[in-house]
Specification:
0% of the residues lie in helices and 50% in strands. It is mainly beta. The strands form 2 sheets. Strands 2, 4, 5, 6, 9, 10 and 11 form a 7-stranded mixed β-sheet that branches. The chain is globular and about 40 Å long.
Length: 115
């Protein structure tokens, strides 16, 4: 069993930056593909960024060039650096750990971009 705890959300002005962290408990963090997803009110949850166990990365078109996903296997943590934030980035951000037969989600952290 893996528990995921997100942190780093908050209120930021347009153009600002935030860094989200997702700390995982349990063992074998390095074998999981780790993703950041977000869900805005009235919308479906969507993939924001993914980093595989081999550290290949993939981004949603809407965040390319602004967001960076990274992982530190020694700390069992995945990060999402978010720059040049826009009001449309406002959402609850969720961390996900996906393995061959398992799938874990965090509880989410709120990101609000507003002046």
């Amino acid at each position: 069993q893996v528990q995921l705890v997100e942190s780093g959300g908050g209120l930021v002005q347009p153009g600002g930056s935030l860094r989200l962290s997702c700390a995982a408990s349990g063992r074998l963090f390095s074998i999981y593909d780790m993703g950041w997803y977000r869900q805005a009110p009235g919308k479906q949850r969507e993939l924001v960024a993914l980093i595989t166990s081999s550290s290949s990365v993939n981004y949603a078109d809407s965040v390319k060039g602004r967001f960076t996903i990274s992982r530190d296997n020694a700390k069992s943590t995945v990060y999402l650096q978010m720059n040049s934030l826009k009001p449309e980035d406002t959402a609850v951000y969720y961390c996900r750990a996906e393995g061959r037969l398992v799938d874990y989600w965090g509880q989410g952290t709120q990101v609000t971009v507003s002046s």
